[in-house]
Fold:
Amino acid sequence: MQQEYLVQDPFKTEEYMINMGPQHPATHGVLRLLLTIDGEIIKKVEPDLGYIHRSIEKMCEYDTYQQIVHLTDRMDYLSSHINNEAVCLTVEKALELEVPDRVKVIRTIVGELTRLASHQLWWGVFGMDIGALTTYFYAFRDREMINDIFEETCGARLTMNYNVPGGLMFDIHPNFVNRVKAFVKHFKTKLPEYDSLLTGNIIFQKRTKGIGLMTAADAINFGVTGPGLRGSGVAIDTRKTHPYSAYDKVNFNIPTFTDGDVYSRYKVRIAEMWESLSIIEQLIDNIPDGDFKVPTKAVIKLPKGEFYQRVETARGELGVYINSDGNKNPYRVKFRSPGFSNLSILDHLSRGYKIGDLVAIMASFDYVIPDIDR
Amino acid sequence: MTNAELQNSISTWNPEFTFTEEATEFLTLTVAKEDWYKIAQKLKFTPELDFDYLFCVTGMDYGTDLGVIYHLRSTKFGHEMVVKVNTSDRENANIDTVSDIWRTAEFHEREIHDLFGIYFNNHPNMQVLILPEGWEGYPLRKDYDDPVNMIIR
Structure:
């Protein structure tokens, strides 16, 4: 026995497989990754999905268009308002329904608040994932203000279901404008704190700079969208390329960083928060008067045909494809969720890095698992 | 390029191409499944077309036929089009993979394989992605039997 041990090469390593998840704090949901590793170096990442698959696309085939809207809350629950908006815009496009300007502006403001809340949560858990617990409390302090605004105006904090085909469920609360202004004023002083707390931290920079390098060509080839794509220097944003709601009336930049690493994607999201604040500031004093809803029939029937609408959620491009045969239920609905395509590049990006880097790479894409599984 | 220019340019490859005129905003081309892989290569690698971004892949069950809808976009020129590939064989439905042309198709095709039962030839890893192993039937097909009424009410 002793002799057998001695003839083995003590420096020989062997590849083996381990499970990461489905219950793992860094996946923020039930995502299972099968890692093939050699020591701590990742050789292959194989995602196994479906732990929270609810077959929303199949459910849609048995629902009316008004009912579909609230199912989309449950996909990317951090961009719930934007998901609702996507379905409503598709239905409105199919019906050739023009919604009042008031609706467009309110949708845009609430959408940008949603993006801010989502990025705040991302920033909090990003720090937490790589070992900085304090960020979580800073982010949730500010996010709470947005959730309170949503609670007052939309009736819910997370799954708001504020959009309906043709407009909004109800008008904004009388306090809405003042509270949004108070939040913008507050958050403008707090956002620089985010930078001083985490961005400049040398440990943070060592963990993120040069990690998970993604070229622009790879990003497009894998269908990566959102801050991930813009972190590789590609200035594509659906709000600019296919403007919807009031995005054609406001001035904003598409922040891009060219390094393509985790740090770049981090910087894009921080810059996007400033842009969102600017969009809200441009619109909040200019909410037009008018109706908050165009009357629609109780049972909406879309004309026969295929309709596609895309919006920019906090994670990237969400596409809604509706194939209608003229009935009250759609024939087929497909949600092109940003998370699903963003996940497909994970294996390609994380090969050769350590397990700790994989956590940073995953955090930089801000995966929301119900959005991936649908 | 505008839709008309795209149609002219692509028609030169094969004058028998059928561009459907359904109610949709995209130029829609239906191709035979035998030709799809070669056309996909041409769509991506022809410099003046440059469809480098496959933004949506949708499985379809038309009742008799199964099909896949590919939404394509050129990030450089901004033009977009839709390609449809159909197969009438429901038992052994198979279509050539394009996952080596657009890597994003790899996951989308695996999802469609799970939910529609369309096999993608030459796909690098055609294992179940979303459904549990050993699941019977293809849930998104129209004739899917749902004995416990999980979804169908």
About this structure: The longest strand of chain A covers residues 41-48. The interface with chain B takes residues 47-50, 53, 55, 57-59, 62, 218, 220-223, 234, 236, 241, 303-308, 310, 317, 319, 321, 323, 332, 334, 336, 340-341, 343-345, 348, 373 of chain A (CB under 8 Å). Chain A has one domain: 64-345. Chain A is about 50% helix and 15% strand.
